[in-house]
């Protein structure tokens, strides 16, 4: 017989979350905790590093200049950190399936959970074509017609070495690999993402080091670049040739949307929380290291990019359909001829990693919706090993969009995907911030000391409010460029504002349908699932030697 959950004494400030003693049986239809510490560490890293950093910075440099690029990524980095400390505090305490989607149901209302869940699922369904259209632009080896959507990037990359083989063969091969990985369960996904993310980390670190060497004159041409391009063509770009401070400000603002696209995925660790081992120890470690990753990979990376490539380089303009990674442009300018195939292979692994993460995240988001009653219950079915196989199979069907093609304008189509996924991702961050603000009010109303949480920071609730306000403002003005004289474009307007309008429509329609008011702070549930979470915690054996101790610290 299940014991009654303990209720906190709302009038006592001495109550803590350590007092909870509840027994909750683990029933069928649940995810299993198969993701180890190193998996969580690399999933959180892999969510940060992607084609947005490798290549998406091209447009940003062309729009904002080297300083505009750097300031734009610094601004977005502060928003990401604010979102992650908010999410980390909640998910480290309640590492439940569905992540922030399920947390919104507890601390806001079912309508917010409904809106966040479908927005998140939509985001990870749409983001895939954007990633791979970008790679199509980068590697138009001999394709003059079709540009496949999702997994076709891998086919195009392989086509670099084997142009005589049909791309459809490689597309199907990639689909089979990605679906197989996800059908083998969270453990298999964790292992492959560990490998893929490791390659991405080594690639970006190698490119940054190489970039610094080239900038200092260590390339074959021995040209010491220094801060040359900060002086000519200059630190900022006059966006659309708009003169003065207004043009420079608009150039910086244009960078923000692309910067958001680069950072989207940082929050994947929350979706993986329901399948993480020892989540109350491993998740805080992953959240804390977001600071280092943002500083190392993005701030240092964009600084190096701004040093190596002039903002007026024509290869930076992705809409032209012939863009290249700023790193590749710099390597070519320096006269290094031996790296294209190696970089191509690294980007191939990045494409596979993105495809695998897309399927994992979208399937878990759909599972989270199902267990909340916001999607058909069939998507909540799991195998004996804890795999939500119905959700995985359904989401895998969307990988067949890899056979879709566009006959022209791949660069412009890519920017549409960037607009849609950036705004949808920002709305996810907005929802996380709102959920945390409510979570914080609930803790305060029930007299629960935040210092008893597995993870907390002193910057709350200010960080959550900052993330909430800035994400809303950026979304509101994300499509401002179409309102400039002579710049109206219906497709750009629709793709930019569709997710922004879609989110409140989902929320309002759900509120009207369910007619359930927001959860009151003193009625918020901080107890359910705690016993099972604590029961799943397992003490790690002490490290056997210094090497193992270092590995644990690193991961």
Strand content: under 5%
Shape: globular
Tell me the total number of β-strands.
0
By DSSP (H or I, 4+ residues per run), the number of helices equals: 20
Mean pLDDT: 76
- Rg measurement, Å: 23 Å
Unreliable segments (pLDDT under 50, ≥5 consecutive)? Answer: 1-28, 140-163, 405-410
Taking the sheet with the most strands, its summary is:
none
Q: Structural class from helices and strands?
A: mainly alpha
CATH fold-level name of the domain at 27-122 and 187-329 and 415-525: Amino acid/polyamine transporter I
Measured as a percent range, the helix fraction is 55-70%
CATH class of the domain at 27-122 and 187-329 and 415-525: Mainly Alpha
Subcellular location: Membrane
Keywords: Amino-acid transport, Membrane, Transmembrane, Transmembrane helix, Transport
GO molecular function: amino acid transmembrane transporter activity
Protein name: Amino acid permease/ SLC12A domain-containing protein
Question: How would you describe this structure to a colleague?
Answer:
The protein has helices at residues 37-46, 51-93, 100-107, 110-138, 152-159, 167-183, 186-215, 228-231, 244-263, 268-271, 279-288, 290-308, 326-333, 340-371, 389-396, 410-445, 462-476, 490-514, 530-535, 546-554. The chain is mainly alpha-helical. Helix 1 crosses helix 7 (186-215) and helix 5 crosses helix 6 (167-183). It has a domain at 27-122 and 187-329 and 415-525: Amino acid/polyamine transporter I (Up-down Bundle).
